[in-house]
Amino acid sequence: MKCPFCSSENTRVIDSRPADDNNSIRRRRLCDDCGKRFTTYEKVETIPLIIIKKDNNREQYDRAKIEGGVLRACHKRPISAQQITKLVDDVEVELFNREEKEIPSTLIGELLMDRLKDLDAVAYVRFASVYREFKDVNTFMNELKKMLE
Question: Cβ distance 11 to 22 under 8 Å?
Fold first, then answer.
């Protein structure tokens, strides 16, 4: 492992423990050349997951895209980064537990909306407005009525 400070390959592990999610290992490392410490995380490599988009194009699964969408929906809401990470982790675990090589993006959207509905109503409506591509106010109102029932 290269040191992020001096790029030396002369580093060693000084502490290892399970990370918070118990799905990865957190390692504290020490660079023997510059003496600085840094942290790395080790995760099990899973089968590459292919996402089938609405236009039938296929692309490799990208967690950052899901996090970005959830972050935009939760912008200026009383939701912690830890809650967002947990929500994305939960969706990711559910996706990978399906053990399918290809998953439609609509499934990911529905899983995210189900969890956002329980987390924060405003974040849910924001996400739904983009995900469901509301064309007018009536479509938006219909979604709000469903939520209020």
Answer: no
For 129, residues 6+ apart whose C-beta sits below 8 A from its C-beta are: 140, 143
Please tell me the distance from the alpha carbon of residue 96 to that of residue 91, in angstroms, as a whole number: 9
Measured distance CA(66)–CA(88) in Å, rounded: 7
Residue 41 makes CB contacts below 8 A (sequence gap 6+) with 19, 24, 25, 26, 27
Q: Is the dihedral of CA 29, 93, 61, 101 positive or negative?
A: positive
Q: Cα separation of 62 and 37, whole Å?
A: 29
**Which residue from 116, 115, 107, 113 is spatially nearest to 49, judged by alpha carbons?**
107
CB atoms under 10 Å from CB of 118, counted, come to 9
User: pLDDT 10s per residue in the chain (149 long)?
Assistant: 999 999 999 999 999 998 877 778 999 999 999 999 999 988 876 668 899 999 999 999 999 999 999 999 999 999 999 999 999 999 998 998 888 899 999 999 999 999 999 999 899 888 988 887 777 777 778 877 877 77
